[in-house]
Amino acid sequence: MQSMVPHWGPVFDVHLHASRPERFVRVAGASFGAHRKTAGANQTDPQQLLTSTLAAMDQGGVRHGLLSGEQPLVQMWAQAHPDRFLPSFVPGEPADGHPQAAARFEEEVLRGRWQAMGELGLPYVGQPLNTPALFPYYAVCERRGLPVFFHCGLDGPDPQRLLAPKFRVELGDPLLLQDVLVHFPDLRVVIMHLGWPFFDHALYMLYAYPQVYVDTGVVNWVLGRALFERMLRETVETVGSDRVLFGSDQMVWPQMIAPAIEAIVQAPFLSESDRHHILWANAAGLFALGDDASTRDEHSP
Questions:
Q1: CATH code, 6-292
Q2: Per-residue pLDDT tens over the stretch 189-247
Q3: I want to staple 151 with a disulfide (CB 3.0 to 4.6 A). Which of 43, 99, 121, 271 is the partner?
Q4: CA–CA separation, 9 vs 115, rounded Å?
Q5: Where exactly are the structural domains of the chain?
Q6: What pairs with residue 65 in β-bridges?
Q7: Is 261 helix (H, G, I), strand (E, B) or coil?
Q8: Could you tell me which residue, 31 or 287, shows the higher pLDDT?
Q9: What are phi and psi of 94, to 5 degrees?
C-alpha cells in the first residue's frame, strides 16, 4: 500500500508507545462503541509490534516519532532505531517524584537519554494533573527545555474493569494544568487527545497560555470524523494551527496510524500550510529539528 501523505511532506508523530502487548489482552476483546475499530486486531507479539509500527510509519511518511511507554522497551526501540524514535521519560509511579529521583532524571537528560517527559497517565493511578508529586521533574524539564506531555480526558473501554481501577476521567481535566503553569511559567506543556471530553477546557488553555500545545492522538480515529473535525476546526479558527501536534496514539494498533494521518489530510477546512504545521513543522520546531520544507510537494506554497 502506498504512503497516504507524500503530497504533504514528512510527518512527525508525537504519540507513539512501546508496549508489551500482553498488557492489552482484556482490552483487545472489547468490541462495543468506538473500540469496535480495533477489536480483535491488536498486535500480540512484541517484535512484530515494532516491525509493524515501523512499516506503518513508512507507509504514512512518518519520519520521526516521540516514543513513551515502558522504559526498557522505549530505550530498546530508540537505540535500535535512533533515526526514527525520540525517547520520552515516564516515572514509574507519581510518588517517586522526590528530589533525588528528579536529580537522576536530570543527569540522564544531560547524557541525552531523554528528549521529553510523558505521556504522563496520572488519572490512571488516581492522581490529578496538578499533583505536586512530579513538580521536581517539571523543574528539570523547564530548566532543560523538555516538553511535558499529559494524558488528558478520555480512556476506555470500561477502563476501571479492563485496565485501571483507579482511573477517573475528571482527574484529566486540562484546567488542572493551570497550577502547573503557575509554578512553571516557562514549561512547555502538551495536552494530549485534544483534552476530550474536556475539549473546551483544552482550547481555553491553548488560548490563554502560549507555551501550551495540543495533540490529536487517538481522537483522530477512535471518535467519529464529524466530532474530530469539529474540534480541530474550532481549534484552528480560534488559535491557529501552530500549536497543534499530530499524534496517532499507537500502542498495539499500528494499523491506526494511517487513519490518524488521513483525518488530518482530508480535513476540508485545513490549508496546506495548516497540514504542514500539524503533521510536521510544529513538532519539528518543538524538538529543534527544523522545518524540512524541501521535502514538501512541489505544488506546496
A1: 3.20.20.140
A2: 999 999 999 999 999 999 999 999 999 999 999 999 999 999 999 999 999 999 999 99
A3: 121
A4: 24
A5: 6-292
A6: 13, 85
A7: helix
A8: 287
A9: -55, -30
Residue 145 vs residues 24, 122, 137, 216: alpha-carbon distances, Å: 33, 22, 12, 22
What is the enclosing helix (H) or strand (E) of 100?
A: helix 99-110
Tell me the one-letter amino acid at 114.
W
| pLDDT one-digit tens code per residue, 11-48 | 999 999 998 776 665 666 667 666 677 767 777 788 89
Contact in structure between 261 and 7 (CB atoms under 8 Å)? no
Q: Where are the alpha helices (DSSP H) in 92-223?
A: 99-110, 135-144, 159-162, 177-183, 199-208
* Residue carrying C-alpha cell 521533574: 137
Who's near 79: CB < 8 A, 6+ residues apart?
Answer: none
* Residue 50, pLDDT above cutoff 80: yes
CA dihedral 140, 187, 86, 108 (to 10 degrees): 0
Question: Given the C-alpha cell 480541530, which residue does it identify?
Answer: 232
Interatomic CA distance for residues 244 and 118, integer angstroms = 17
Q: Which residues contact 257 (CB under 8 A, 6 or more apart)?
A: 13, 53, 56, 57, 59, 60, 62, 248, 250
